[in-house]
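We modelled the chain as a single entity of 158 amino acids. Its sequence is:
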Amino acid sequence: MKLQNIYPLTILIAISFLLLNCRDGSNPFEVDYSTVPDPFSVEGITPDTSETGLITYRLQAGSGPFEVTIRDRVLMYYTGRKTNGEIFDSSYGNGSTTPSNLAVDGVVEGFREGILGMKEGEKKVLIIPPSLAYGNNEGHSLQNDTLIFDLELETILD
């Protein structure tokens, strides 16, 4: 069989697999957030507001000799919610119990600002204004939304 004939066959098999798995009416691209923990409580904690407008609640101090820098990759548990409580992303999605591997320089500006300087074991809540998130990115589903993130830093990898 010629190599060029394999590509259409591979695509056909992938589409068939998706269609067979959707017979129950479920959407294979929809993430299940049913196992996401409740939002962290910030009751009694005084927030810090940066010059950029990022609001940070430090719930638990971290430990160890290292702090997150812009060049690092980290293993982190997180959940992102809109101000109405709707979850839009979480490391716990689809029942996951392992932290996500994130590149610090690969996240939105407010998230990056909030995790820089964190130590392993630290927990925070970030309230990220639109200007530090997706702002007025035309057509983005989180355009002009304030984002709330619960964060728990597991490991600094680099």
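As a brief sanity check on the tokenised model: Residues 1-29 form one domain. The chain has two domains: 1-29, 31-156.
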